[in-house]
Amino acid sequence: MAEWICGISECENRFETIEEILRHQIKDHPHNSCRVCGEKIPDGIFAIWHVIGKHGRKEYVLAYGATSSDVRYREYVKKLVESEIDIDSTYELLMSERDGEIEESLQDS
Ligand SMILES: [Zn+2]
Ligand SMILES: [Zn+2]
Q1: This prediction's pTM
Q2: For residue 1, what pLDDT band results from cuts at 50, 70 and 90?
Q3: What average pLDDT does the chain have?
Q4: E strands within 2-109?
């Protein structure tokens, strides 16, 4: 089975499934503002999916100063992830999981 390596900073944590790496990226890394629309988005695969998927390659190149090989790599990652899971619903699920955990930790203190 394919192995997923977190590419954020120098994290390099390894995961066996897409769900695991996405859960890690949503919960263990800070979320950044999208440079195109300003929305807070999780870093890593979701950021790729958001910028390429919602805004398109031209916006991505303009906002991020991306090269054509950046674009090709991100489109490849996006396609790979989409071939295995439904990103929209996984995103919703993981974000609500994360929000639930934040609520819980607030109630504990
Ligand atoms: Zn990581
Ligand atoms: Zn955006």
Answers
A1: 0.87
A2: low
A3: 94
A4: 4-5, 14-15, 32-33, 40-41
Ligand located closest to 29 CA: 1
- CA nearest neighbour of 18 among 72, 97, 84: 84
* pLDDT attached to residue 87: 93
Angle at 103 between CA 98 and CA 106, to 5 degrees: 125
Q: Which residues surround ligand 2, an ion (CB under 5 A)?
A: 34, 36-37, 39
d(CA 52, CA 58): 9
Place of tokens 């263990």: 28
3-state secondary structure of 96: helix
